[in-house]
């Protein structure tokens, strides 16, 4: 006697397809989170990296830094480190996506009777959860060295929300690039991220840079999120005559939405056209 296994039919209504995508996406996200938990070296890196960054920039370089307009440098620094950590998450995303695509994991998912968007949705969910945990660790490090939010918990949570919004937007950049390159190239993804996070208001104010470089730094999407966080946290470092410097919260929302609008459909399209 032969048993024939048939794949379940895809849902037909929009509500059913949404439930299907969310359920399958969470399954993939759980798989990615379990894989992360079974790599103690990665966990140790995520625990130690924020601590090293705080100590190096807060105490080693911070003794020579001057905040434009006055104020404690560590108060100025921490929102910049929060934003830089969200930006560096791009390398984590594209490395994982590139590795899965190159070793056949993505193809195996695509052969299963699951929602077509579940793989990229699951990756975005797992990376956002990892980034939230990493941000919590970094906030704890900041509190340990004397950084504080000075505008109340509601505005502080709004700042954290903007940081995670930036990370969510950059996840789709990482997914698209990860689907386009090999793991060997993904290992070098950190190289372009350093200048992108340095030509910003991460460690110094754009007003202290040469004119042309300060203009680039002021309009960097990372600068918008960092400046908005400084405003919401009540930390020093606000100011500047440019339109970008005067409207950081607006830009901190607008930039991620533009990035998502561009890179999310490109990522989904690239995923659907793999090996074609």
Automatic annotation (TrEMBL):
Q: What family, per the record?
A: Belongs to the ABC-2 integral membrane protein family.
Which superkingdom heads the taxonomic lineage of this protein's source?
Answer: Bacteria
Q: Which residues cross the membrane?
A: 47-69, 81-105, 125-145, 157-181, 187-204, 248-268
- Compartments reported by the entry: Cell membrane; Membrane
The keyword Transmembrane is assigned to this record: yes
**What is the name of this protein?**
Transport permease protein
UniProt keyword annotation of Transmembrane present: yes
InterPro entries documented for this protein: ABC2_TM, ABC2_TM_bact-type, ABC_2_transport, Nod_factor_ABC_transporter
What membrane topology is annotated for this entry?
Multi-pass membrane protein
Domain named ABC transmembrane type-2: which ranges?
41-274
Q: Which UniProt keywords apply?
A: Antibiotic resistance, Cell membrane, Membrane, Transmembrane, Transmembrane helix, Transport
């Amino acid at each position: 006697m032969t048993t024939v296994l048939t794949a379940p039919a895809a849902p037909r209504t929009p509500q059913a397809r949404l439930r299907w995508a969310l359920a399958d996406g969470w399954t993939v996200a759980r798989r990615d989170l379990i894989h992360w938990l079974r790599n103690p070296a990665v966990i140790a890196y995520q625990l130690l990296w924020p601590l090293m960054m705080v100590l190096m920039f807060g105490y080693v370089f911070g003794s020579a830094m001057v905040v434009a307009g006055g104020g404690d440098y560590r108060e100025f620094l921490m929102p910049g480190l929060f934003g830089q950590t969200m930006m560096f998450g791009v390398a984590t995303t594209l490395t994982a996506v590139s590795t899965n695509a190159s070793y056949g994991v993505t193809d195996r998912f695509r052969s299963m009777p699951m929602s077509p968007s579940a793989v990229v949705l699951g990756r975005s969910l797992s990376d956002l959860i990892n980034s939230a945990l990493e941000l919590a660790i970094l906030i704890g490090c900041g509190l340990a060295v004397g950084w504080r939010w000075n505008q109340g918990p509601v505005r502080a949570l709004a700042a954290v929300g903007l940081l995670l919004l930036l990370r969510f937007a950059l996840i789709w950049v990482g997914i698209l690039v990860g689907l386009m390159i090999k793991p060997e190239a993904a290992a070098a993804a950190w190289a372009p991220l350093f200048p992108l996070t340095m030509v910003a208001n991460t460690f110094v104010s754009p007003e202290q840079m040469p004119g042309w470089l300060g203009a680039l730094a002021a309009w960097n999407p990372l600068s918008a999120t960092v400046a908005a966080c400084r405003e919401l946290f009540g930390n020093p470092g606000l100011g500047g005559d440019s339109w970008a410097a005067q409207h950081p919260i607006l830009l901190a929302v607008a930039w991620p939405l533009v990035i998502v609008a561009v890179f999310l459909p490109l990522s989904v399209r690239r995923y659907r056209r793999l090996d074609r």
